[in-house]
Amino acid sequence: MGIQKPAWLEALYTQKFFAGCSYHETAKKNEKNICCLDCCTSICPHCLPSHRFHRLLQIRRYVYHDVVRLEDLQKLIDCSNVQGYTINGAKVAFIKKRPQNRQFKVAGNYCTSCDRSLQEPFFHCSLGCKVDFVLKHYKDLSPFLKACNTLQLSPDFLIPQDMGDDEMTNETPHSTIVDCDEPMSSSSGSSGSENMSVACTQIVRKKRSGLHVCARSANRVSNNEDMATSMSRRKGIPHRSPMC
Fold first, then answer.
1. Residue 121 preceded by cis peptide, ω within 30
2. Exposure check for the chain: N or C terminus, fewer CB within 10 A?
3. CA 153 distance to own-chain centroid
4. What does the CA dihedral 48, 207, 69, 98 come to, rounded to 10 degrees?
5. Tens-binned pLDDT, residue by residue, of the chain (244 aa)
6. Would you indicate the residue range of the signal peptide (predicted)?
């Protein structure tokens, strides 16, 4: 007996996407539009810190149906002969079957499972149609499965703007923080300001649009030091002259 549907494929069929996340009910943009293939569950963008090292697949909507980019799906399973559709410049494929009842068939190309009209030379209108066809005729899905150890979200995935600093720091596998190897010096003077400046510039936040370096100005540090020095030079607390 061959290999049946893997757990991640069952999750694509059974999980409910684009519903509100129960863990982030009060957060904005909490729709579950990501499928974690390792946990086999649907998650929202605010759940990403807990799944940042997992294989993640973005789910999209097209004509009220769930679709996935063909480029991402091809890394998991052979999608040959599955008809793709173009949305926002990207080729996508439907996940589930879309049955279409036809009383009369005319000459043409139709899906092997749901009788939907297709373009040449495609045989399946969705991933589900191909999987059912393979299991029905070959009884084994293993030759069509591909080894995929890492799968990241596409660069056009939008991160909610209201995510906190802690969430933004660990929001996706693309994010990274470079910590300073040496602790900052607490002594005053030019050496202290230089260490503080270097330590701050080593904090790197990588977002989908590129690298943003968070640096603290050395002039601000020097101004604070000058203020502390001037305060230390004060001779004493002024006293009010006695009233006559």
1. yes
2. C
3. 4
4. 50
5. 556 789 999 999 999 999 999 999 999 999 999 999 999 999 999 999 999 999 999 999 998 999 999 999 999 999 999 999 999 889 999 999 988 776 666 778 899 888 888 999 999 999 999 999 999 999 999 999 999 999 999 877 877 766 654 554 444 333 322 333 333 333 344 444 444 444 434 433 444 444 333 334 444 445 555 555 555 555 555 555 555 4
6. none
